[in-house]
Amino acid sequence: MSIRPRRSVLYMPGSNARALDKARTLPADALILDLEDAVSPDAKELARCQVAEAVTQGGYGRREVLVRVNGLATAWGMDDLTVVAELPIDGIVFPKIETPEQVFEAVAAVDRIRGSTDVGIWIMAETPRCMFRIHEIAAVHSRLTGIIMGTSDLAKEMRVRHTPARTGLLAPLSLCVLAARANSRSIIDGVHLDLNDEAGFRAVCEQGRDMGFDGKTLIHPKQIETANAVFAPSAEEIAHAREVLAAWEQARAEGKGVVVVSGRLVEELHVDEARRVLALATAIAES
After folding, report:
1. Per residue in 251-285, pLDDT tens?
2. Same structural domain for residues 94 and 188?
3. Closest C-alpha to 138, from 95, 174, 187, 92
4. Residue 268 burial by CB count (10 A; 0-12/13-18/19+): exposed, middle or buried?
5. 1 in a domain, yes or no?
């Protein structure tokens, strides 16, 4: 089983050359070099040039490198894509996706420029219209790698309050997790904006993990350590997974049809989850 850790996915503004350089040393699993929300209109061209230079220079190691372009319907979108699609990156992030047709358009535009199909396509889920079609969007194209929640934009559009429990966002968050899992896509939770609220940040990371997200998008390097810890299997989970697999294999070798671990019946689904936990732990250790 092959798994790529995406516990911590850090936004880095493309207009900030120092941030692009610092990203090479940070323990984030993935980076989103941003040309969209984190960049003011008068710095779009500068950001595009700096991201292209930084990526071409390399040095990001095992980190997954994504670039978020501006929407293709904006004044900057196609110029962004013309440059970004040629770069040696792992994926391109498209914002404000609301229809399956937009995914097809994005993939087609990338392929016209890049001439190959080796780059991942990611979408931002951040509008009410997207929520009503998220299953169709997630299912529409095999090139789609994953979904990233744009919770700030979504909260604004829905007019819900930013509460510690994220009550107003629970329904769309769950819809997106369901769509991702139904179509074997990765799914990354949205950002936490209060950098001084360490306890609150850990709480929403734990909430996102428990809801089924693979990781968390971050706005500052100080958030990486917590996200990496929360979205990684604990020592207890790893030990239990090993115990489940050992008991399962022993039972099969002995021709037994029932396996019990710590007083609980073990079925095929528990074995699958144990394998996933161990594969993720291995991938994290190797990253």
Report:
1. 989 888 779 999 999 999 999 999 999 999 999 99
2. yes
3. 187
4. exposed
5. no
CB 226 within 8 A of CB 201: yes
In a domain, 3, yes or no: no
**Any idea how long the chain is?**
287
Q: What is the pLDDT of residues 177-199, one digit of tens each?
A: 999 999 999 999 999 999 999 99
77 and 196 housed in the same domain: yes
Using CB atoms within 10 Å of the CB of residue 178, give its burial: 0 to 12 exposed, 13 to 18 middle, 19+ buried: middle
Domain boundary among 206, 230, 254: 230
Contacts of 234 (CB under 8 A, 6+ apart): none
From residue 216, alpha-carbon distances to 8, 41, 125, 237 in Å are: 5, 27, 14, 20
Range(s) of the domain holding residue 276? 235-286
Whether residues 49 and 150 fall in one domain? yes
Are the CB atoms for 202 and 218 separated by under 8 Å? no
Vertex 264, ends 260 and 269: CA angle to 5°? 85
Q: SS3 for 69? A: coil
213 and 270 assigned to the same domain: no
Domain count, the chain: 2
pLDDT tens sequence across 52-104? 999 999 999 999 999 999 999 999 999 999 999 999 999 999 999 999 999 99
Choosing from 182, 204, 230, the residue where a domain stops is 230
Whether the predicted pLDDT of 149 surpasses 80: yes
Tally of CB atoms within 10 A around 53: 11
* Nearest-10 Cα torsion for 114, 22, 200, 184: 20
Which two tokens mark 252?
A: 């099969």
User: Within this chain, do residues 166 and 217 fall inside the same structural domain, yes or no?
Assistant: yes
d(CA 242, CA 262): 13
